[in-house]
Amino acid sequence: MGQVRVRHLPRRLGGEPAVILTEADLRDRLRRPTPGAVVLVPPGARLSPAAADFVAQWRLVLDDAGSPADPSGGHDPGGHAAARPGWDRDASFPVDGDAAPLCTQCGSTVDTKPSRLTQLNRNHYVPKTHPRIVLRGRLDSLGAHLLAVAGDAVAAGHDGAGADLATLAAYCRELLSAEYNERPAAGLVLDGRDAEQIRAATHDPVGTLGVAHVTLTERSAPVQHRVNACRTHAREVEIVAAGVFPSPHHPYGASVCEGLNRLSSACYLVQLLLARGGLA
Questions:
Q1: What average pLDDT does this structure show over 219-231?
Q2: Gene3D superfamilies under this entry (predicted)?
Q3: Judging by beta carbons within 10 Å of its beta carbon (0-12, 13-18, 19+), is residue 106 exposed, middle or buried?
């Protein structure tokens, strides 16, 4: 396949090239994208979040015309051109092991933790049947599920989807941290899209992504089915969270519920992006 050029963006004062390439810029010259197509980009160019998605889904090869200063063409090979939020990182153990929690049933210090108790927060132990502990377990399971499917996606050659699913697994850890530390959860961001942009893309995929709504059949790709299962799992956990934190004014629980609502939408966004890349 011959090299496919994208149009050069207007130059800034001083002769420097504009640094942002949009999805429209890439589509303008590709016309009909094909997996693995080579795209020449201006030296030092960067990708918008939507352009990064487009490159990842079609596995496009970016060539910055041989610029020695930036052999990647300004594009993160993982497809994540946008800055990642602070919570989008590898897992770490969040509990303060030096704390001396109290029993919520009797109020006394717990020197030796019985197996039937666990930490509600850094100050208190509760029975493992406590509603927040049940929610925590469901969130932990959802995060593990997302990370496992991320590995499946990468193994199947869908690196962009794998990276997105790993981000969603990291967001589960953010929700866990917020619930444990009793603080508002950070908003979900996926490849530079905030919660409202995720919602817009999933409600109007034709207008925002150029792809129709995804409907699966028994012949659909296995990765699509696994991501869809993550979506339904997120909806189930959201229902559990709504039972634990029923008030929309709860100081931190409301943000956990909202985050789970957006997380299920983000799973569907991953499905749409896979479909846009030709994986029905």
A1: 97
A2: Cobalamin adenosyltransferase-like (1.20.1200.10)
A3: exposed
